[in-house]
Each structure stands twice: as structure tokens, then as C-alpha cells.
Amino acid sequence: MAIREIHKVLIANRGEIALRIIRTVKELGLDAVAVFEKPDSEALFIRFADEAILIGDGPRKDYLDIDRMIWAARISGADAIHPGYGFLAENAEFSAACEKAGIVFIGPPPQVIRDLGDKVKAREIMKGANVPFIPGTDTLSPGDCGIEEAAAFGKQWGYPIMLKASSGGGGRGIRKVGSESDLRLQLPQARAEALSAFNDEKIYVEKCIEAPRHIEVQILADHHGNTIHLGTRDCSIQRRHQKLLEIAPADLPPNVLNAIHAAAIQVAHEADYINAGTVEFLVDAETNEFWFMEMNTRLQVEHTVTETLTVIDIVREQIRIAEGHALKIPLERVQLMGKAIQVRINAEDPKNNFWPEGGKVVEVYQSPGGPGIRLDGNVYQGYRIPTDYDSLLVKMTVRGFDWEQAVQRLKRALHDFLIVGPKTTIPFYLGICDDPDFRAGKFDTSYLDTHTEIFRYPEREREIARLSRLIAEIHAKKTNPYAY
Fold it and tell me: The pTM is what?
């Protein structure tokens, strides 16, 4: 493939990931173009871009509008688009539209996204790669025929089973079914949910693996046939199939790690994969047997935990691959020294089923620092949390020499982190840090269900929070309301 140099990159996304991509774009000496909807007019990422384009009133619909993104690229003169994650990141039609418009799409080719975005097609690819995958069906037939096919699968493999949207992702479009009567009730609802979320009502069924570990492998693949892995991440601690805390590398025996690394690379080769991607597996917590689950054809939210250990800028590699360069990362450079943990600090109330705190203002924002701390966020003091988008405020990644130091560093950093205004997940993570099982490295995807005591954290506001609120008020009003 001939080298095509990129000069200006449009980031077709928002929030912390837009800001994270802008930073690498600038480090490469390229121009960064941000796009935004009106609810994001005061967002931090806009301030760091070389150029910002209003694409509509929103909310959300303009970030999902392929034509608007191509229009913004054309009027700004951007010759490449980075989709980030979420929104259009795994949309094959977006990749194809960029290709048609002569704009470099910083991600996989359209057909690869189509193949791996269809979970049933992805299972066929795994079969060709001789990679173990969870027993499951093809796409179910429409109507009552599909219900009978699912019921027959349930009788063969036993319950519980999982209903999954063929075009699903991000933890959406998944339902656990415990009996045939439950199946007959939930399958029509699952189809309606899939149609609403993905504009595709196709559903398939998988055997449910009870309380597994969720392990993923970060890969990079170029146009020259080179594919490498950047190690594993353990993403087992989740709520509603969405990750909350990620750890790198996964704590598995060396032979299991090697087998999972090899399987991930084989998956990428079989799918003719190009650019950055993540191969996800379920691992039996007792036997370490593993099965392919899916491949995400984009940058992951949790990519920072891998970057922290490997000191490899994944976004930089994405851009270089898109330009046509060959990977120049020798295997001996991929050394995951120590342990890293990432937590997603969301404006949510964990005690109220993680209810979002949209609409509230961040009155005080004081972030931690010190050795081994990385922050990726879009929040600042005075920031009004939007009600129209996700509740992520900042991702914090910590690194330690070993697991014990990483947990202690995480705990210290969480104590030092001060956000006044909305409720956040900070005290929830502090509860996890004090849990004996977590400190011993014992957790799987059932962790939140089996460790309800971590939700019993104190609600009392710390003295430092009250003091910081007072200081913020004094700065805002230019007077001390309590002076006399």
C-alpha cells in the first residue's frame, strides 16, 4: 500500500475521547478538527481543537449523521476522520462513506466492520480460525419459528441461555433467560429492543457461561500483513454488561495467556483485520478454559490501561496504519511491567442503580497527581453535566510495580480526588479497594451481585469537600459569605 500522508484529522466524536485523540493528533504535528452539537458548546474538547464545527442542535442525532460528518470534513479540509468509540465508530457505512469521499477512515475497512459487527458472521470466522467459541445458534428465523429454534437450543444445552442482538455491542442487546417460559416472553421484547437500538431486529442465542471472567486482547494490524498483540485486560467488574473497572494484564497462567494471545492474532488474520481492535473472550474462572465472545472494531474506552503499561500510543499507531505505514513495534518492546488499573469516574449514584446525575454542576474539581497516575477527562470546575450524553466525567488509570501497589495507589488517588456537586462512582470504587476478594484478585462478572457490601459506603461529605466548596464560593462571589 502506498503511503498517504494525513495533514488534518476530524474527530467524529465528543467528550474525553475527542480530547484524547486531539492530543495525539497535535503531537504528530497535524491539525485537529472538532465537531459538536449545541449541548456540547461549553465542552472542554472544543477548546483544544485547532478548529471546531457546529454540526447541529442535537442531541446525539448529529453525532450519528454520516452526511454531516462528511460535510464537516469537506468544509474544514480534513483529509482523515477518526471515529473514536461509540456513535459511528463501528458503522461500516461510515467507513464506506469516507472511502467514497476520498477521506481516510482511521479504522478498519467497511467489509471487516460488517463481518465482525454481525455476531453470527463473526462466529463463522472463528470457526474458520479454529478458535473456541461459545455454543450458539445462527440468526433466529422471524416470528414463531425463531422462538421454536431458540427453545430447541435451550433443551439441547440447558438454561440459562443468552439472547443477543446480532448487531449489538457496548453491553446493549443482551438478555439472560432462565427458562423456556421466560424465553417465550422475552424473545419478542429482545427483538424490539434490538430494532430500537441498532435498527436491526436479528437475534441469536448463546449458552450462558455462569460467572466467567471477561478477558480481552488489544491487537494492532497493518496493511502489510503484520499483526501484534499488546497484552490482555481483565474487564470482569461490570454493571449491566458494561465495564466499570479494567486491569492489565489479566492474572492468568503464562500458558493460558500465550494461548489467548495466539487466538486473538489468529482471529485478526482470519478476518483480514486492519488497524486497532480488541478480541474479547470469556474465561472459566476455575478451569481457565476460554471462548471467543466478540471483536470490537474500534478503539476501546479502556485502551488507556494498555497504553500505561506498554508506553505505546495506540491512537498514534492507528493514524500511522491508516497512512499505510508498516508496524515497527518489535515483540520485545511489548513488555507489560507491573499492574495497571483503570476506573471510570461517572456522574452516577451507585446506590440508586447507577442513576445518572445529568444537569448538575461540578462546583469543585480537584484531581490527584503523583507517580503512576493518568487522567483522561472532559470535566472542569463549573462544568454542567449534560443530560443528553453518557455520564463519564474522567477515566483514571494508575500503575504500580505489582498488584498490591496498584491497588494502594488507586485507593490513595481516589481519596485525593475531589468532585463536589454530582454524586460520583468515587466512593463506590473506594469500597471495592477495601474488599478482601478484590485485594486478593478474586473477581468475575458476577462480582457486583455477590459483593453487595461495597454499596454500603458512607454518604457523609468530607471536611475537605465543605472547605473546597467555601473556597469556590469565595472565588466566585469575591467575598467571604461567612466573614463578620
Answer: 0.89
